[in-house]
């Protein structure tokens, strides 16, 4: 698919010699592209049947279905290569890929049933058994983890290295820690979704700073200033990365003082993922049980600039929104929908289980936005 796109582009730009066959082919291509633009022929606008309280699952599946690189991975059968050498169960990936293929080959307003997929995911994570309302973000975690385990290119994991990296400069240490992570966990899923978080612990006594680097699959953001009725996503990021004081029972041991000391702790982003999933902590304990914060969190659809949260200087950290899981209602009785930007025509649609309707991008921001999917902007839009 990727090479095709490049070739089509080359033709359009007229860089190739115009032999008659190419002219015909390029007008066919133009015709097809034109048809793809008129919304009647847009693919991917297919609803998912609600199997009984499964809107949390449907909402996340639609967000993932509109994750272009993940869809391509499933549609082009590249995932099969990664599965081919596997002796473990590969049913989640297979059912997931089949579901995405069904979504992207059915005609608009058809409805696809995710029941086979559901059978496999609940075999992997029995907590999703039955037909109870669940938390969409927890489901996303389980699903990505399940997919990754099946397509992990590492079959024999090396023993975790115990070599001490503390003598290295931080950026080098971060790279080494990432390399170690990939030696054990290396898949298309990791390439797309996983970033690296740096946590710096500074002793208030001697000033010694120790750093830890951890991979992350999403960031769970506390909602800033609970009393205000409106906050921005960047406010929530600032709260998440705010310097914390660890004192009293929480006092860590300083490696230099060799004693428990009052320390400050701060997060920065060491490596920005291609797909950044931001989860707004609207529910305490991450469960849809207690109250829900319905604070309006405003977030940009384009050019979310996260450079101020980077550990390194001059990172590429500008993101565009392409999907949102929307949770309405307050308790277990709530309802999930998804808003997704179609990767082919760039228009926004609402996915409400089996129903798919066009929407305006101005409706995307609401006080019900719960999980946000951002994609790192391409190098061209950086200019
Ligand atoms: C999102 O949730 C809100 C609150 O219930 C609801 O009014 C809105 O219609 C939902 N949006 C979509 C597009 O599902
Ligand atoms: C979703 O669809 C149901 C009917 O199937 C409807 O009652 C509900 O209002 C819709 N919700 C949103 C947010 O569009």
Automatic annotation (TrEMBL):
- Key word Kinase present: no
> GO molecular function of the protein, one example?
metal ion binding
Q: Which Pfam families match?
A: UCH (PF00443)
**The EC number(s) this enzyme carries:** 3.4.19.12
- Whether Endoplasmic reticulum counts among this entry's keywords is no
Q: For this chain's UniProt record, which GO biological process terms are given?
A: protein deubiquitination; proteolysis; rhythmic process
The GO cellular component terms are: perinuclear region of cytoplasm
Q: Where is the USP domain?
A: 46-377
Catalytic activity of the protein? Thiol-dependent hydrolysis of ester, thioester, amide, peptide and isopeptide bonds formed by the C-terminal Gly of ubiquitin (a 76-residue protein attached to proteins as an intracellular targeting signal)
Compartments in which it is found: Cytoplasm, Perinuclear region
> What UniProt keywords are attached to this protein's entry?
Biological rhythms, Cytoplasm, Hydrolase, Metal-binding, Protease, Thiol protease, Ubl conjugation pathway, Zinc
Q: Which family does the entry's similarity section mention? A: Belongs to the peptidase C19 family. USP2 subfamily.
Q: What is this protein called?
A: Ubiquitin carboxyl-terminal hydrolase
Q: What is this protein's gene name?
A: usp2.S
